[in-house]
Amino acid sequence: MNLSEYLDCPNEDYLTYKEVSEVLGISTATVRNWVKLGHIQPAAIQQNNRFLRSHIEEIRNKITNGSLTKLNQRANKSNSISKIIPTEYADNPKVCEAISTITDLFKRYNLNRDTVLLVTALNLLRQVDLIREIQYLSFNDINFTNEIVKSEIETWLDNIKDRELPHYYNEVFDISIPLNCDFLGLLHQSLLYEGERAKTGTYYTPKHIVDEVVTQNIKSSDLVLDPCCGTGQFLLLASEKINNPSNLWGFDIDENAVRLAKINLLLKFPQHKFNPNIYHKNTLSDDGKDIPQFDLVMTNPPWGSHFSKDEELLLKKKYPNVKSNEAFAYFLEAGIGYLKEGGILSFILPESILNTKIHKDIREKILKQTTIKRIKHLKRPFDDVFTNAIQLDLVNKSADENSFIAEKDDSLFHPKQTRLVSNQDFIFDVFTNARDYELLNKVFSVKYNTLKNNAIWALGVVTGDNKKHLQENNGVKA
Ligand SMILES: C[S@@+](CC[C@H](N)C(=O)[O-])C[C@H]1O[C@@H](n2cnc3c(N)ncnc32)[C@H](O)[C@@H]1O
Q: Cα–Cα 20 to 30 A to 1, which of 27, 184, 265, 318?
């Protein structure tokens, strides 16, 4: 590529070191090493800290389909598609079988991810007669039976570069796929590389957990929101109980996920003429204009903070109470703000929200503005994420003297919210029974000393060569 071609390229065609590490699922140190070894090349002499996206995507595809075996070992950890089919998300073996068939075709023929998703969506739409039966799939020849589906697919097609479909896409179009589940969501996640999943926190929720959240909290007339709906799995399960599909609302920052969530709802209600209330937006920076208040706000928000400096500044301004800069805390604030008086919020969150000091601010907000309905310990529900989780259900009304339910393993506890308010850091020590709590209070009621300010703590260092680095004489030569 010469310089003039290079200057004509829009910025998004280039990737930074960090972005390359995310796309390839390796550390930035490994990216630097691969550059040194000549496995990947920076884009141009003028800007050798950038890489052409197409070059990196080509490398990624070669690693994935096994044609670049020398780089497989490093990248495989996260990039092997067969490894990242999130099976905990599906409970039907036919679903996993169909996903494996499609991901195998994807790898074998080096298919385009967006086109595979679109062809799969058409496969499903054909099953419920939202498009008419055709023998050979051609994007120029789709016969729609529903105007909303037509406009949705046509907008999607505008983003697909290649309208001519090689014959192997017909294999995807003809696979037998079970209806009545978020198949598109599972495929979307299976085709997302781990680095990208981690960046947006795209770890969708296992079905049995979503089932419980929905059945415990929903009423058939509810107006329901998932503020980061992904491909709409909470909304799909809610749709089993809700008669009017227009009562189901969802937002997400991932445009592909939003498309799939819309298709999912259209597939679920093939007889209804409705435009799904699913919107592509950044929920945290949205001004909330034209958004109603909801009876039920439920989701599994992203955990962790992957914000740019600009986003961070904006969020700090919009949510001054949240000091942790943690995505789920911002989503909790936003979620509570979307509730009607008496409305219910049900979120899947990391266990750390209950007791780490950094989340004192959001615990205080919960205690002062809402009534806790239930806290359930979920152990470690996500295969790839090494964190315990909880389900937190709140009601948007001020707290009373009543106790709520806390559930861990097979034990039930009945703590009172007033007890949590009286504790210094608003720690939610909810999995303690009344007798243990009384005992602890008794222990702390006698005079005691702690190690705080009374001990010096040191953290060990692994030197890799103790003989050289550890000395007995404080380093002072005799
Ligand atoms: C853990 S996934 C959960 C998806 C879905 N609620 C579920 O549980 O199946 C988190 C979702 O949050 C979305 N997300 C991340 N940041 C967002 C933002 N600022 N606004 C809207 N959605 C966001 C991601 O794209 C992803 O779909």
A: 27
Q: What is the CATH number of domain 3-78?
A: 1.10.1660
C-alpha angle 154/281/57, rounded to 5°? 65
Alpha-carbon distance values, 139 to 113, 125, 253, 368 (Å): 16, 14, 27, 55
CATH 3.40.50.150 fits domain 200-438: yes
Across the range 56-83, mean pLDDT stands at 58
For residue 197, what are the contacts with CB-CB under 8 A and spacing of at least 6?
Answer: 84, 189, 203
**Closest residue (by CA) to atom 9 of ligand 1?**
204
Rounded Cα distance between 10 and 33, Å, is 27
| Residue with CA at minimum distance from ligand 1 atom 18 | 282
Q: Does residue 226 have its Cβ closer than 6 Å to ligand 1?
A: yes
CA of 228 to the centre of ligand 1 (A): 4
Paired sense of beta strands 339-350 and 294-299, if any = parallel
Ligand 1 center to 242 CA (angstroms): 22
Over residues 200-245, the pLDDT tens digits come to: 666 778 889 999 999 999 999 999 999 999 999 999 999 999 989 9
Asked whether 250 lines ligand 1 (CB < 6 A), one says no
Binding site membership of 324 for ligand 1 (Cβ less than 6 Å): no
Domain edges within the chain: 3-78, 83-191, 200-438
**Which of 26-40, 219-233, 282-296, 298-312 has the least mean pLDDT?**
26-40
Q: Report CA-CA distances (Å) from 245 to 178, 237, 264, 327.
A: 21, 12, 11, 29
Q: Which is nearest to 396 in space by CA: 298, 296, 326, 328? A: 296
How far is it, in rounded angstroms, from Cα 218 to Cα 346?
Answer: 10
Residue 254 Cβ < 6 Å to ligand 1 = yes
